[in-house]
Amino acid sequence: MTGTDDQLRTRLSAIDPLHPTATPEPLARYRAEEILEHAMGTITDTTLTPAAAPRTRRFRAPLLAAAAVLAVAAAAGVAVVMTDGDADPGASSTLSLSVGSGDAMSSCLQFDVAILAGMPIAFAGTATEISADAVTIEVDRWYRGGDADVVSVSVPDGQTSAALDGVSFQAGTRYFVTATDGVVNGCGFSGEASPEFEAAYAEAFAG
Question: Bigger pLDDT: 62 or 159?
Answer without folding.
Answer: 159
